[in-house]
Design goal:
Length: about 130
């Protein structure tokens, strides 16, 4: 299990990705299935192989960062393979990556503002079985 391998408590692990220790407990017990958002957060935070996280197959950790890969000309480029979420989310990520740095803060603030207008969504999904989180 990832959390044990990186020697973190449920509280510390959850805090790193914005969920409660009880949410981590429910996921580990297989009572709740983690959402795509939570899976992506775990993959990005600890450089975890998404395939391993979801199926237990393959290497636990990736050799390169999960969300970007280095290129010689631009420094980094967006890698859509980490995000299996909604196609619109993929497009937002791609466009944000291509946006000049001085505009990224504005985009973040706009999204945060829009989220503040809606009730909070849970980062956990429906019950589906035990996961490697």
């Amino acid at each position: 299990m990832l959390r044990n391998d990186i020697k973190m408590s449920q509280k510390a692990f959850g805090s790193e990705i914005g969920v409660s220790d009880s949410a981590i407990s429910q996921i580990e017990k297989g009572k709740v299935h983690p959402s795509d958002t939570l899976i992506i957060a775990v993959c990005l935070r600890w450089n975890v192989n998404r395939k391993w996280l979801e199926t237990g197959k393959g290497k636990m950790f990736l050799d390169e960062p999960a969300s970007v890969t280095k290129t010689s000309q631009t420094g980094y480029h967006y890698d859509a393979s980490i995000c299996k979420a909604h196609p619109i989310c993929q497009e937002i990520c791609k466009l944000c990556h291509e946006t000049p740095d001085d505009h990224k803060q504005e985009i973040l603030e706009y999204i945060q503002f829009k989220q503040s207008l809606k009730p909070k969504r849970s980062l956990t999904g429906a019950k589906r079985g035990k996961r490697n989180v």
